[in-house]
Amino acid sequence: MLDLQSEFGQRASRRLTQERIIWLATVDRRGSPQPRPVWFYWDGESVLIYSRPGTAKIDHIRRNPQVALHFDGDGMGGDIVVLLGNAELEARAGPATGNAEYLEKYAEGLRRIGMTVDQFSGEYSAALRIHPTAIRGH
């Protein structure tokens, strides 16, 4: 999906790998978009997000799996990266305790919020997998 030969593809890939926060927009029962910042892990093909079970975003995805993901821009209307895709609850992803790459990426974030890996994995036990279908930006 990403053309890594293009400047945009290289920039999008870098942001997907290095950024700590991405905005996840789901659709509520009234059809309104509901954006929220989330931690994520990009594996080169899909995005993994851990969530608390029973949250609004989980309910939204169960009703309508179409989502959008985007990063903050540069404040001047540039460096825009938006992914559109389909989300699913993924039991086979396992808990965060088994995802070394995710834990490495967010080790400092976990310390900052005062949570251990086990606490995070227990509280954020719902794994969401987003499969991008399109990417756009500039």
Q: What shape does the CA trace take?
A: globular
CATH class: Mainly Beta
Structural class: alpha+beta
H/I helix tally? 5
Describe the structure.
With 138 residues, the chain is α+β, with helices and mostly antiparallel strands. The chain has a single domain, classed as Pnp Oxidase, Chain A (Roll). It contains five helices and seven strands; from the N terminus they run αββββαββαααβ. Strands 2-1-5-6-7-4-3 form a seven-stranded antiparallel beta sheet. It is globular and about 40 Å long. The relative contact order is 0.22.
List the helices and strands and how they pair.
Blueprint: H1 7-18, E1 22-27, E2 33-38, E3 41-42, E4 47-51, H2 56-63, E5 66-70, E6 81-89, H3 100-105, H4 107-113, H5 117-123, E7 126-137
Antiparallel strand pairs: 1-2, 1-5, 3-4, 4-7, 5-6, 6-7
Structural descriptors:
single chain; alpha+beta; seven-stranded antiparallel beta sheet; 138 residues
Brief synopsis:
29% of the residues lie in helices and 33% in strands. With 138 residues, the protein is of the alpha+beta class. The chain has one domain: Electron Transport, Fmn-binding Protein, Chain A (Pnp Oxidase, Chain A, Roll).
